[in-house]
UniProtKB/TrEMBL annotation:
Membrane topology: Multi-pass membrane protein
Higher taxonomy: Eukaryota, Viridiplantae, Streptophyta, Embryophyta, Tracheophyta
Bias (Polar residues) ranges: 1-12
NCBIfam families named among the record's database cross-references: fbt
Protein name: Biopterin transport-related protein BT1
Organism the protein comes from: Urochloa decumbens
């Protein structure tokens, strides 16, 4: 997704989108004797297929992202700072993912810890987009409905992530990276499927129609719940788990185990770095208003840009999977952050119109700029997922992984809100862009601030594996 679109985050933490699947790892028959095909080096068992499809749904839900951006700007007449705040508010469900992880791990619903929650998450998502298509008419109801949709995606994300880390725990960073690549590659493919139509449908039929179509997509999550290989917990055992003293004791044990894990230096310090890395300010909302109000980019054209960046995102997944997953984390973060900050400055050329003096149109410049940054951002964020997955001890996979990713998401939301504050300080509004170049420069230079803290990350390369948390 282009950096200047509402709701984007470093590394596309919420909605990564994709490209052509790398031919080296096309779906193929596994080694002799295997019953399954493989993709990205991972067996496509029913469990893994369910995980991949849920991630695919996360990507294809990008169909409504442009519609939301235009709805907030044109129908509700919000300014860039207000839009950034609404976007930050709607991301709040991603900050309490540990709660969903605890619920999923500790409270079986209808005898299942995974299936039932996937099913209900899909229904919740369908409800949220149905409300957007029908009754929503103010920034408060819009923020609430978008928040409900975020809750749906966040809860299903926790459930499938717990399934992922169960498989990744104890594996090398390389093997874990292959599984994460399958997940995010599926999400990226979903982004490709929906990318172009996200703009053309807004142009042709309007935002309400797009919200209505989007309401059907989360039902795929409900449908694939049956693929999850999970034994039903007998009702008697469920009653014991949920009984007063037993449930309280289980809750206390989970909290103690979570705190014991998080406070370990080899977990806390890398997590602190990831938070600071994500918390630097962003100018996405201001740029979205500039390219639509000043440059006149249409939803249909932005849909094309989204298609290109969807392809770029999956390309970033492929680059990580084949070239970077055995490189030390410090080196990946150092190089990608410096290059990303330098390339981010190219937005100044677009804002000032200097690109046209070099004979490059605004449209082509935007496409090329977004493509390069998206590849870089996705490749740099993949190690964060591998790092988090390998930190999780047995028995609380969903809870700890959700905690670590919530901290990362909190950093991203913080960056968005700081960016909203800077947007107001610099006087950038829906029609005033005089200080936008300065805002871009400040936001990009600030991304370099966490680099002196690279020592908080582990030194090991991904090819060594001397323990479950060594790479973390």
């Amino acid at each position: 997704m282009p950096r200047y679109q509402v709701g984007s985050t470093k590394g596309n933490t919420r909605y990564p989108e994709g490209s052509q699947i790398p031919s080296t790892d096309d779906v193929r028959k596994n080694k002799p004797g295997s019953r399954y095909y493989t993709a990205f080096g991972v067996d496509l068992s029913p469990d893994n297929m369910a995980v991949a499809i849920v991630y695919f749904v996360q990507g294809v839900l990008g169909l409504a992202r442009l519609a939301v951006s235009f709805y907030l700007k044109d129908d509700l007449h919000l300014d860039p700072a207000e839009t950034a705040v609404v976007s930050g508010f709607s991301s709040l469900p991603w900050l309490i993912k540990p709660l969903y992880g605890f619920i999923s791990d500790s409270i079986p619903l209808f005898g299942y810890r995974r299936r039932s929650y996937l099913f209900l998450s899909g229904l919740l998502g369908a409800l949220s987009w149905t409300l957007m298509a029908t009754v929503v008419s103010s920034k408060y109801t819009a923020a609430s409905s978008i928040l409900l949709g975020s809750l749906s995606v966040a809860f299903s994300d926790v459930v499938v992530d717990s399934m992922v880390v169960e498989r990744a725990r104890g594996e090398s960073q390389s093997t874990s990276g292959s599984l994460q690549s399958l997940c995010w590659g599926s999400s990226a493919f979903g982004g490709i499927v929906s990318a172009y139509f996200s703009g053309s449908l807004v142009d042709t039929y309007g935002v309400r129609f797009v919200f209505g179509v989007t309401a059907f997509l989360p039902l795929m999550t409900s449908a694939v719940a049956v693929l999850v290989n999970e034994h039903r917990i007998p009702s008697g055992e469920c009653s014991i788990l949920l009984s007063g003293s037993g449930f309280v004791e289980s809750s206390k044990q989970h909290v103690r185990q979570l705190w014991t894990s998080v406070k370990q230096p080899n977990i806390f310090l890398p997590t602190l770095f990831i938070f600071l890395w994500q918390a630097t300010p962003q100018s996405d909302s201001a740029m979205f208003f500039f390219i639509t109000n000043k440059l006149g980019f249409t939803p249909e054209f932005l849909g094309r840009v989204k298609l290109v960046t969807s392809i770029a995102s999956l390309l970033g997944v492929g680059i990580y999977n084949y070239f970077l997953k055995e490189i030390p984390l410090r080196k990946i973060f150092l190089v990608t952050t410096i290059i990303g900050s330098a390339l981010g400055m190219t937005q100044v050329l677009l804002v000032t119109g200097l690109n046209r003096q070099f004979g490059i149109s605004d449209e082509w410049f935007s496409i090329g700029d977004s493509l390069i940054i998206t590849v870089l951002g996705q490749a740099s964020f993949m190690p964060v997922l591998v790092l988090a997955a390998k930190l999780c001890p047995p028995g609380m996979e969903a809870t700890l992984f959700a905690t670590l990713m919530s901290i990362s998401n909190a950093g991203s939301v913080t960056g968005g809100l700081v960016g909203a504050g800077l947007t107001r300080v610099f006087g950038v509004t829906r029609d005033t862009f005089g200080n936008l170049p300065l805002l871009i420069v400040v936001c990009n230079l600030s991304s370099l601030l966490p680099l002196p803290l690279l020592g908080l990350l582990p030194e090991e390369s991904g090819d060594t594996d001397n323990g479950e948390t060594k790479h973390n």
